[in-house]
Amino acid sequence: MKVKGTGSIKQVKNKGVPVKNSWQLVLSLGVDPLTGKRVQKYRHFSGTKTDARRALAEFKREIETGLKLNADTVVFGDYAKQWEESRKLSGRLTESTIARGKYNLRHLNRHLATVKLKDIEPTTIRNLYIALAHEGIGQNSIAKAAITLKQILRQACADGVVLRNVCDFVEAPKMPKSKKGTALSNADIARLAKALKDAESNYYPLAQIGQQRLTIDMSHASAVRLALTTGLRRGEVLALRWCDIDFDDAALHVRHTLCRTTKLLKLPKTHGSIRTVSLDDRTIADIKRWKNRQAQYLFSIGIKQDEQTHVICSEVGGYMDADNLNRWWKAFKKQYGFDGLRFHDLRHCHASMLVGSGVNFKVVSERLGHSNIGTTLNLYSHVLRENDKKAANIVGEIMGQSASL
Fold first, then answer.
1. Averaged pLDDT, 392-399
2. Does residue 252 contact residue 240 with C-beta atoms inside 8 Å?
3. What is d(CA 211, CA 374) in angstroms, rounded to the nearest whole number?
4. In the structure, what pLDDT confidence band is assigned to residue 405 with cuts at 50, 70 and 90?
5. Helix (H) or strand (E) holding 227
6. pLDDT, tens digit, for every residue of 88-146?
7. Contact 308, 243 (CB under 8 A)
8. Which of 159, 204, 307 is nearest to 247 (CA)?
9. With contact defined as beta carbons under 8 Å apart, do 227 and 350 qualify?
10. Nearest alpha-carbon partner for 220 in 237, 233, 207
């Protein structure tokens, strides 16, 4: 937008008396072609007249570079709320992504909600990161909040609310390296399988409550067993319904995942995640045993098991909440000596067993539902290297034996 002339500075008056260091900056934008009236833009400034002249030049630059006329009044909290709503309406993001963005905004709004966007400087952002760290916010959460902040200010640039994205001038906190998956030894996997059997045999003295508690133990144990024997993600395990289990073909079909935030079934994260996974005879027998037990328990509380019933169910026959599964898993690990083993590590254990046994990487990738085989190779190539070392040692032993002849 072209400004006519250089603008003017007028001293503010109170009842005709000039107010010290108080100025009105005035820019002329020409004549409105529809109304024929002169269009002017005003801004108040406090400071010396010399500073007011500099502010007028900055004011003019803002107008001519395309900033919105009300840009100087927009505060971070209001703009961030508008940004969040537009993301929801776009339909391109999952509920879990939107929920994570909302969580990040809570950290940002505690410090920036009332700050005008034009007043956010690189030092503001550096102080924000320091303040979050002093509050005890983890490095991972601060790094994610920094990403959200940069996205918001990038959009503000595009909308003409700010001239630049000041995040570009601040070194963002680094995302900590993700923890590598833990893979159990064959002996530990056997110990875990025995522990699951023990958990399914817990004794509870009160009959009715005991039946409920034991059934839920079996439901949780079945979730762990399925994750270990199929490599399914937690949300995929919790989304399974009996219509997804094919006992005749000894397979299960991954068609959905249970969203942790909305508690609703949704499509898996990638097209490759929609897949069929074969089941071994022992796992089929375990699932059949659990299905019969579940049917008896649900019948006792007035619910008929059908094809839409969740395989991993709650005490009232609905889906198993991920947080409830995590609490049970945490107590189970402590009781049986598997501290440090995450639920997601069961998926790594499954993959490592297969790769270590020489199963083709393409097959492993398809069982895990990876979008491409490269992901599988990146995650589990170390297992191949370990096998290669074993092969080298075998060759060395054979050569050593021949040398001693």
1. 63
2. yes
3. 46
4. low
5. helix 207-230
6. 888 778 777 888 889 999 999 999 999 999 899 999 999 999 999 999 999 999 999 99
7. yes
8. 307
9. yes
10. 237
User: 40: Cβ–Cβ under 8 A, 6 or more apart, which residues?
Assistant: 26, 27, 28, 29
Cα–Cα distance, 253 to 276 (Å, whole number): 5
Maximum CA pair distance of the chain? Answer: 115
User: Exposed, middle or buried: residue 139 (CB in 10 Å: 0-12, 13-18, 19+)?
Assistant: middle
Count Cα atoms within 13 angstroms, Cβ side, for 316: 2
| Identity of the amino acid at 307 | E
**Could you tell me if 195 and 181 are in contact, meaning their C-beta atoms sit under 8 angstroms apart?**
no
Count the neighbouring beta carbons within 10 Å of the beta carbon of residue 120. Answer: 20
Taking only the tens place, the pLDDT of each residue in 289-335 is 999 999 999 998 999 999 999 999 998 999 999 999 999 999 999 99
Q: List all residues 6 or more positions away from 220 whose beta carbon is below 8 Å from its beta carbon.
A: 199, 312, 320, 325, 328, 329, 332
Two tokens, residue 258: 């249970």
Residue 272 and residue 208: Cα distance in Å, rounded?
43
Helix (H, G, I), strand (E, B) or coil at 116: strand
Listed residue (209, 133, 231, 229) closest to 174, CA to CA: 133
* Nearest Cα to Cα of residue 156 among 69, 93, 80: 80
- Among the residues of 113-206, which ranges form H helices? 122-134, 139-158, 186-199
Q: Is the dihedral of CA 119, 122, 125, 127 positive or negative?
A: negative
Contact, 237 vs 231, CB < 8 A?
no
- What is the sign, positive or negative, of the torsion defined by CA atoms of 105, 111, 113, 117? negative
What type of residue sits at position 235? G
| Bridge partners, residue 45, by sequence | 23
Backbone φ and ψ for 14, nearest 5 degrees, come out as -115, 105
Pairing of β 257-258 and β 265-266: antiparallel
The Cα 93–Cα 328 span in angstroms is: 31
**3-state class of 51 per DSSP?**
helix
Rg of the chain on CA atoms, in Å: 31
> How many CB atoms within 10 Å of residue 289?
13
For the chain, helix, strand, coil in percent to 5 are 55, 15, 30
Query: In the Cβ-directed half-sphere of 23, how many Cα atoms lie within 13 Å?
Result: 19
In a 10 Å sphere around its CB, with 0-12 CB exposed, 13-18 middle and 19+ buried, how is residue 316 labelled? Answer: exposed
Under 8 Å between Cβ of 169 and 122: yes
